[in-house]
Amino acid sequence: MTELDPRALRDAFGAFMTGVTVVTAHDTDGNPIGFTANSFSSVSLDPPLVSICLAKSSSNYDALANASGFAVNVLSESQKHVSNTFARPVEDRFAAVSWQSGPHGSPVFDEGSAWFDCSMFKTVEAGDHLILIGKVEAFENSTRPGLGYARGAYVTSAMEAEALNNNANLLLSVLIEHQGKVLLVDDGHGQLSLPETRVGKEGVSTVLQRLIASKGAEAEAGFIYSVYEDEARATQHISFLCQASSDTASCGTFVELSAGALMKISDPAIRIMLERFANESRMGNFGVFFGNQISGKVRPMTSGS
After folding, report:
1. Cα torsion at 207, 113, 52, 33 (round to 10°)?
2. 304 pLDDT exceeds 70?
3. Under 8 Å CB-to-CB from 2, ≥6 apart: which residues?
């Protein structure tokens, strides 16, 4: 077999977009330890298992290889500094983050997208790495969008959105979801629609935050769910999927996407998008739509699962 170029192989691995996590535990003296990792993956629901890959060259190798458990902290878009801190030989990494001991004992972070506190289920030798398989003993999820990483750079939904700001006819809508229900508003003609607004000079991120706040929904700015040219309205439409922590709002109502509710959606393109969302919600597998108001393609979102 021809010898592979390690640098080229690493670059190729980097083409796979991942989330960013910090893996934490305690050493034998009880001190918190942690490192940045994008090798996190869900393994099983029954039993609930996750995995992480630990380099044998890591300074944390001995402590983690013999630990009774570990935690995986999924970083949010606002935590790039945390990722950088835990990726470098900083003397006190934990000074950069607010944390506490999780229910099973490993350090878990505040302000992240999620965390999983695990007991050690199994370790597997794998070349120059050790695969740590943990059984999830406790976890916490939030509505904060996760921090992405690809080809040596961070990727966030805000960055993607700002790339569209040069379009003078950009229309933005929010698909705010809570446990399968979606926030819909009356369009003024007895029909329903997603909350939407034009994007002006302020930029997508600012307008997105204000649109969510104007509906009184407890939701965070999420990721781009659909981008399409609406020739009938002479606009480019961008829709964000945002998770809400409750189904209450000061403007609009959270509605289950039944066939009857979908028939009340005034815009055919929005109706098609919500039909797709209803189907994807049942499967738990989302994609991003690119095209126009009539047809296009759905590109699967990259996942570590």
Report:
1. 120
2. no
3. none
Domain boundaries, given as residue ranges, for the chain: 6-150, 157-293
What three-state secondary structure class fits 106?
coil
Sheet (strand 41-45) strand order: 32-37, 21-26, 69-74, 114-126, 129-141, 48-55, 41-45
The pair of structure tokens assigned to 218 is: 């407890």
Block residue for tokens 């003993």? 137
Does 2.30.110.10 match the CATH number of domain 6-150?
yes
Check: CATH 3.40.50.300 for 157-293?
A: no
Q: Burial, 124: exposed, middle or buried (Cβ in 10 Å; 0-12, 13-18, 19+)? A: exposed
Q: What does the pLDDT look like over 176-197, one tens digit per residue?
A: 998 889 999 997 778 999 999 9
pLDDT of 230: 74
Contact status, residue 70 vs residue 52, Cβ threshold 8 Å: yes
Q: Beta strand 287-292 with 223-230: parallel, antiparallel or unpaired?
A: parallel
Q: How far apart are CA 155 and CA 129, in angstroms?
A: 26
Max mean pLDDT range (46-55, 157-166, 230-239, 270-279) = 46-55
Whether the bond into 6 is cis, omega within 30 of 0: no
